[in-house]
Amino acid sequence: MKLISTSQMRLDKYLTEYFATTPEPLSRTKIQTLIRTGYISVNNQQVSSNYQLQINDEIEIKSPEISTNQELVGQEMDLKIMYQDDDLMIIDKPNGLVVHPAPGHYENTLVNGLLGLDVNWSTASGELRPGIVHRIDRQTTGLLVVAKNDFTHQELQKQIQNKILHRRYRALVHGVITENRAKINAPIGRSPFDRKKMAVTGQNSKPAVTNILVIERFSDYTYIECELETGRTHQIRVHLQYINHPVYGDPTYGYLSDKKESFGQYLHAYELELVHPRTGKIIKITSELPLEFSEKLASLREKE
């Protein structure tokens, strides 16, 4: 597989962060081994793990463990398209849909659905992520934007980095948050105790900021809005667990009882606001809460 670098950082760190968002993350040690043994190259040259990537460097990965000859196939999928033009598309993702393929999981993802459309997608995120500018978790519902060309893709990524593109979420969390507004500023990295999880940690972490606004309080829960200033893996879920108010239904960062919640986590990407890369027009799209989310809120209100 091939990737096009979108950041300036060490090669091993870049790939660790890239594969951290896949269903089967690779450790930094494993990636360093693959680089050292020649399975990973940059611009057709063998390099070391501390090679400093430049934007648009071509990274080629030949390891059979993380690459495949299997061609991604388009699948007919009933995607809910909220907006589209010649440059981009905004999709309302349902619960349970994985965004992009990964080793061992090459079908029934959003990317397969995108490839099933008669559209040319951007290639800036690599062969396994055509069009994907950012992602949301499998059990997170709501809005995400995909790019139809590399110009749009790169400009949208710049908007995310420069905090021009705004992503707002709605979440139902355990416990009562007493503050009306709060800013969670805590670095996130791979958990030192469980490599499949992220955590607030000072080790190999990156800055992460989440703003929260209380919408409604119940006896044992709080309905909130979250706005991201950064985009770390599992950021909202990790930050809310960190302040002891995990997302209700979160099977990974929530309570043991949350694993029994059939709907999964009550986290919804409800609003996306961006500046169109080509026209300069502000695009602001909102998405209604899933039925299960709305019914849960209604049930809590009845109990109150």
Automatic annotation (TrEMBL):
<comment type="similarity">
    <text>Belongs to the pseudouridine synthase RluA family.</text>
</comment>
<dbReference type="InterPro" id="IPR002942">
    <property type="entry name" value="S4_RNA-bd"/>
</dbReference>
<dbReference type="InterPro" id="IPR006145">
    <property type="entry name" value="PsdUridine_synth_RsuA/RluA"/>
</dbReference>
<comment type="function">
    <text>Responsible for synthesis of pseudouridine from uracil.</text>
</comment>
<protein>
    <recommendedName>
        <fullName>Pseudouridine synthase</fullName>
        <ecNumber>5.4.99.-</ecNumber>
    </recommendedName>
</protein>
<dbReference type="InterPro" id="IPR036986">
    <property type="entry name" value="S4_RNA-bd_sf"/>
</dbReference>
<dbReference type="GO" id="GO:0000455">
    <property type="term" value="P:enzyme-directed rRNA pseudouridine synthesis"/>
</dbReference>
<dbReference type="InterPro" id="IPR050188">
    <property type="entry name" value="RluA_PseudoU_synthase"/>
</dbReference>
<dbReference type="GO" id="GO:0003723">
    <property type="term" value="F:RNA binding"/>
</dbReference>
<dbReference type="InterPro" id="IPR006225">
    <property type="entry name" value="PsdUridine_synth_RluC/D"/>
</dbReference>
<dbReference type="GO" id="GO:0120159">
    <property type="term" value="F:rRNA pseudouridine synthase activity"/>
</dbReference>
<dbReference type="InterPro" id="IPR020103">
    <property type="entry name" value="PsdUridine_synth_cat_dom_sf"/>
</dbReference>
<feature type="domain" description="RNA-binding S4">
    <location>
        <begin position="9"/>
        <end position="71"/>
    </location>
</feature>
<feature type="active site">
    <location>
        <position position="137"/>
    </location>
</feature>
<dbReference type="InterPro" id="IPR006224">
    <property type="entry name" value="PsdUridine_synth_RluA-like_CS"/>
</dbReference>
<dbReference type="Pfam" id="PF00849">
    <property type="entry name" value="PseudoU_synth_2"/>
</dbReference>
<keyword id="KW-0694">RNA-binding</keyword>
<keyword id="KW-0413">Isomerase</keyword>
